[in-house]
Amino acid sequence: MASTSRLNPYQCDQCGTTNIVAAPLLFEQGTRSYSGPFHSGISQSYSAQAVAPPDLRGYGRSLLLWGIPICFTFFLGLVGLGGILEHPRSIATSGNIVAILLLLGVACTGGMLLRFRSIARYNREVYPRLYRNWEHTYICGRCGRSLIIPS
Q1: Rounded-to-integer distance, Cα 44 and Cα 26, Å
Q2: 68-96 per-position pLDDT tens digit
Q3: Distance between CA atoms of 94 and 137, rounded to whole angstroms?
């Protein structure tokens, strides 16, 4: 009798029902891929979107956001440096501007490298823990509560 009064780990601790579904299974059942002669894609139910696995962080967005200022500052700095070397006496104050542009380019490069390091650390340390928790997450079919059940 004592074992029936205690909740087993595969019951919802809020409503007590045994109708719980693993999040990966719910995601798989709600995701469909389709293809036609002119288009293809993936269709997902709202429940599958709600229990989607965590994503790895990519480098493309950071490369685009940091790469444009890097290219801009280095290009203008090198054009200004070429102008100074071609006509050294005609432009007196442009040396400071060129130095500032080149330093900004170096600072942007450093910022991009720090962001890449942060992304790599997330993908290496944080993402595996999030994915493991997602694999052990169960959703109650009655009340919708999510439970993490370690196995």
Answers
A1: 11
A2: 999 999 888 888 877 777 776 666 566 77
A3: 61
pLDDT digits (tens, 9 = 90+) for 23-41: 999 999 988 888 888 888 9
Give dist(CA 3, CA 68) in Å, integer.
Answer: 64
**Could you give the CA distance from residue 39 to residue 27 in angstroms, rounded to a whole number?**
23
Residue 3 exposed, middle or buried by CB count within 10 Å (0-12, 13-18, 19+): exposed
Whole-model pTM: value is: 0.73
| CA pseudo-torsion sign 46, 47, 51, 56 | negative
* 3-state secondary structure (DSSP) of residue 147: strand
